[in-house]
Amino acid sequence: MGTEAVARTRDWQSVTRAVLDAVVIDDPPEVERSRPSRLLRYSLLAALAIMVGLWAYALTYSMTRRDPERFTSDERAAVRHACEDAVTRLRALPPLEAPPTNASVAARTAAETDEFERMVAELREVRPQRGDAATALHEWLDDWDLLLNARRVYADEVKTDKSAKIVVPVLDGSPIFVRMNNYTESKGVIECKTDALGAERVYAFRKD
Fold first, then answer.
1. Is the pLDDT of residue 22 over 50?
2. For the chain, percent helix, then strand, then coil, each to nearest 5?
């Protein structure tokens, strides 16, 4: 082998050693740098998996814990319809004479109470599919019976006593209509609130 060939061989060996040295020297830092990034990546994936799991659990829990007393859409529509019809009939009642007398106020109270009784009878024909919903509806209507009884008592008393008032039953320290209205709001039938129907007083729907 000539001198020139030997030189080329040595040059090639030098370059090879330099490359190998670079690989050996440079590899560890790259490996070290990759470890934190991999750890971060795995941590983020784990956190994401946990968040997805919690979200799925919350969704499942909320669906299984829905109000057991809720109406179906058809049941809710039937309840609303009965209350809206009652308002229509109440508005159609003849106005009180001016000035009102004991007898006319008593007659007006009785006429309104009759319409409420009709409404309650119609509502009792609604038969919810869910047992809890049926029980809650009947309890609400029982509260209506108590309120209507108070109106009947008032209609009798006002015949002879202008200072008579509707004595609303009190349950657990609150007027009964508080519980009644909480029910209507929770079931999405606010058309049936006692104040919307004017059940807490007489001649709520006045004609101008």
1. no
2. 70, 0, 25
